[in-house]
From TrEMBL:
SUPFAM superfamilies: KorB DNA-binding domain-like, ParB/Sulfiredoxin. GO terms for cellular component: chromosome. Gene3D superfamilies: Conserved hypothetical protein from pyrococcus furiosus pfu- 392566-001, ParB domain. It comes from the Bacteria. InterPro entries: Chromosome_partition/occlusion, ParB/Sulfiredoxin_sf, ParB_N, Plasmid_RepB. Residues 40-100 form the ParB-like N-terminal domain. This is RepB plasmid partitioning protein. Residues 111-291 form the RepB plasmid partition domain. GO terms for biological process: chromosome segregation.
Amino acid sequence: MNDDTTKDDADDVPKQTFSSKCVRLELSQLIALKPVKPEIRRAMKFRQILTSVREVGLVEPPVVKQAPHKKGSYFILDGHLRIEALRELDVQHVDCLVALEDDTYSYNKHVNRASAIQNHRMIAQAANNGASPERLAQALGMSTASVRKKFTLLKGICDEVAELLADTNCPQKTFDVLRRMKPVRQIEAAELMVGNRDFTTVFAKAMLLTTPPEQLVDPEGRYNKAAGVGQMAGLERELVMLQSRAKILEDTYSDDLMVLTVTKGYLSTLLGDAKIVRWLTKQHPEYLKEFERIVDMDSLPGIARTSGNGARLASSKLIHPSA
């Protein structure tokens, strides 16, 4: 019985899927699973990565897996843009994490982009460690003014709202709108944004327009008086149109959801076969990426959405906060 228990405990031990140490490889040994198009190389994101690698080096090592039919070569699983930046900087070697699993799909890296609040905290920490705004701006490929603005991102934002929006994709301009409200209204607005999964500046301004004067930091501000009855009427018309479009989508939602559920299950079965995954990796890596994205969905679109009545209630609270 003890032997069986020991065997069960051993089975519960997670299998190691990566090498315990980074392996130094030549860039010529690395094979991209997807091409880096010229427009991507011209994009701001790539220029920021290039500047960061040049100024502070490579922070996160790329992840690779040994190519099954080409000894000494490795597929790039994560870090295509970092590798391209190193090539542009004429770097010959890079330290990589090597995936040990033969099944490509078992490498299941979920990338969560840093939110505005996380960026603010990282920049603030770097500044506390002695990095000047000028050096941070150079490393991040941003203007010094933009870096300085990130320092004050949470100025005038209450702690509860900062916690609610910490892991969301809420843009910096939305915080500029929220700080015009008093804390109680800030929290209510943040909860509505989270509930509707809408963190756009337009949505925040709509809530600001409908905020009672006593809940504004500056009741005489332009968003209160300049809005006027015309803008309020326009906002109500837009909300009515939004509800109409939502009703049209609800009519076909059940059928679409069933098709997506069946498709997700079928793709899960396909990607559980290592031979199929290897074939897709070599022949159609772009299809593999999309299949993985569908299978990796934590919840199907609309599962956590607000019901029809809930959407109307949210719209009602937007127009009449005291409702």
